[in-house]
Amino acid sequence: LEKMTDLVAVWEVALSDGVHKIEFEHGTTSGKRVVYVDGKEEIRREWMFKLVGRETFTVGATKTKAAINIDAVSGFAYEYTLEINGKSLKKYMENRLKTTNTWLLNLGGTDYRIVLEKDTMDVWCNGQNMETAGEFVEDGTETHFTVADHSCCIKAVSSGKRKEGIIHTLIVDNTEIPEAVE
């Protein structure tokens, strides 16, 4: 594997199926552009005469749309911005905080990252979309699933406050797991 000599940008993007590493090489003399997602080459262009522009690709199991914008700042200086689903990375991550809950936990020596997509009620664990069973209970809903023979349940209860909306709590083996901030 050739050494990444023209590496100009690295981003970490937290999606439902995991945290993905995006690396970008830009040869400002050759115009070469290479995009790596999780260490795998997704795009390679040699000898691009236009040094500015845009490269589009997908990330992760959900094939999330991504783009890297290459803009000239001054002279031979360039700025690289990553967009996810048409939004700047910052805006995308701010929006994601509102639409998902994430929990990190360790069961039997193995780390698990559990993500709830609030709009679809999809549950992801370490990159796998989980088989779930939902049920209505007295004070809200419960979504049941199993991780490594441990019974898991995400309880959704109204906060009683319009601004806060619904509160989601992960319970594993009758123990409440605190939400993680990514």
Molecular structure report:
- Belongs to the FAIM1 family.
- The chain has 182 residues and is mostly beta strands.
- The chain contains one helix and 17 strands.
- The chain folds into two domains: 7-90, Lipocalin, CATH 2.40.128; 96-177, Lipocalin, CATH 2.40.128.
- The two termini are 31 Å apart.
- The mean pLDDT is 92.
- Major sheet, described briefly? 5 strands, antiparallel
**Structural class category:** mainly beta
What series of H and E elements makes up the topology? EEEEEEEEHEEEEEEEEE
Q: Using the coordinates shown, work out and report the CATH topology of the largest domain.
A: Lipocalin
Q: How much helix is in the residues?
A: under 10%
Assess the beta-strand content as a share of residues.
Answer: over 45%
**What's the CATH C level of the largest domain?**
Mainly Beta
Mean pLDDT: 92
Biggest sheet strand order reads: 13-14-15-16-17
Oligomer: single chain
Number of domains: 2
* Number of helical segments with 4 or more residues: 1
Shape: elongated
Uncertain parts: none
Spatial extent as radius of gyration: 20 Å
Secondary structure: elements and pairs:
Elements: E1 7-15, E2 18-26, E3 33-37, E4 40-45, E5 53-59, E6 64-74, E7 77-84, E8 87-88, H1 89-99, E9 100-107, E10 110-117, E11 122-125, E12 128-129, E13 133-137, E14 140-147, E15 150-158, E16 166-172, E17 175-177
Antiparallel strand pairs: 1-2, 2-3, 3-4, 5-6, 6-7, 7-8, 9-10, 10-11, 11-12, 13-14, 14-15, 15-16, 16-17
